[in-house]
Amino acid sequence: MYATTETLATSPAAQGGRSRWLALYTLCAGMLMIVLDVTVVNVALPAIQDDLGFTSSSLAWVVNAYLIAFGGLLLLAGRLGDLLGRRNIFTAGLVVFTAASVLCGLAQSQEVLVIARFIQGVGGALTSAVILGMIVTLFPEPREQAKAIGVYAFVASAGGSIGLLAGGVLTQAINWHWIFFVNLPIGALTAVLAVKLIDKDKGLGLGRGTDVPGAVLITAALMVGVFTIVKPAAELGWTAPRTVVLGLVTLTLLAAFIVREATAANPLVPLRIFRSRNLTGANLVQALSSSGMFGIFFLGSLYLQRVLGYSALEIGLAFLPTTVVMGLLSVKYSEKLVMRFGPRRPLIAGLTLIVVGLLLFTQAPVGGNYFVHVLPVLVLLGLGGGVCFPALMGLSMADVKPEDAGLASGLIGTTAEVGAALGLAVLATLSATRTEAVASTKPALEALTSGYHLSFAIAAGIVAAAVAIAYTLMRPAKQAEQTETDTDTPDLALEAA
């Protein structure tokens, strides 16, 4: 299904006797570094504020600068991987991200840190956008591909909770500068291993897909869109004039981009790619599930901190069960589930478990007990994520041609990033609104908990919508019943649903 062309040399044949699994672990190390950075920084924000004198409003730019660059460039970075060679883009991203991390660690002023965080976002986009495309070309055989995607999905989805623990340890044991300095040895080693373990691919060449106007339009649209979500929408509200104006600018840029791609001789994003029901459905599901999950991890952390009184390190330890359960399923069992039932059924089952977990979180009270009110939720989220996310990654790439693998990889990353930003902004705003509404009649902790309960319930509804899309839009496979009775036919793995 994913046979490579002459220009896409990152293939099993091209790898020769070198271990594809070591190459996979190298790619995942790069992804882990990117994912960890987001939550590590969140934990360290109070220390950064005290040291550099950020105000509460300006402190948000330590996060926003990264998100705007990262979310805005993912799609372009994925396509550049197809055109210029995915290993080239991956290693270039590692170099940029690592250098920017050192600059972040050395920062002694607010301006330097914010600029360095923006550059970090550029490097993060270049690195992460092409990874999934490289994996599907490294592992074209369905059974191995399902297992490899399971490893990747675990790193991409569960790495954030590891970051909570790492951030707490580094910030409390040393200082916040070291959350950035630790990226230097990791990034340098990963870049060296990538050059040694992954053969250089030539890419299609700029002549096959140079579309400067399209690149400018989509990058501008995504950057303005992410900025609108994380800044005016979150701070001023969705109906504020500034939010509305920037939202209209985003929609105008997107419309212009679609018109450009429909008429360009060599479009940056060929619209034909969206003819695949699996790819289109997977990206919709990714956006919705990311909206629910990312917002809940953020607000769930606030519940543990503000209501239950947990420290940063205790929050990291509290979320470890999610990581352990998700890792066990993703790495050990996801491939077997996909091979046995096809990707569609595990996807729906996993998303349903997440919905149940989110609904259960709405019952967590003031003074709740971790083992009674929090741990069952985190286990359900880990079970759901470990089952559904590897299947979702497989479906997102199932019908993609080799020359479009980088684009599809960047696309699924873009929808995840935009969905996460949108979900966080919406859920945080609604939670704060509910808290303010009941604060006059209830004690402060009860008002906070009421706001969190509302956000948990809305997140459950968002993920339930993802279940509906997965059920109705994902392509049913004619071989599904045969796959259930004959698990020894790996060729049906990513076609079953």
Automatic annotation (TrEMBL):
Keywords: Cell membrane, Membrane, Transmembrane, Transmembrane helix, Transport. Residues 23-478 form the Major facilitator superfamily (MFS) profile domain. It holds the Pfam family MFS_1. It is found in: Cell membrane. GO terms for molecular function: transmembrane transporter activity. InterPro entries: EmrB-like (IPR004638), MFS (IPR011701), MFS_dom (IPR020846), MFS_trans_sf (IPR036259). It comes from the Bacteria. The keyword Endoplasmic reticulum does not apply. This is DHA2 family efflux MFS transporter permease subunit.
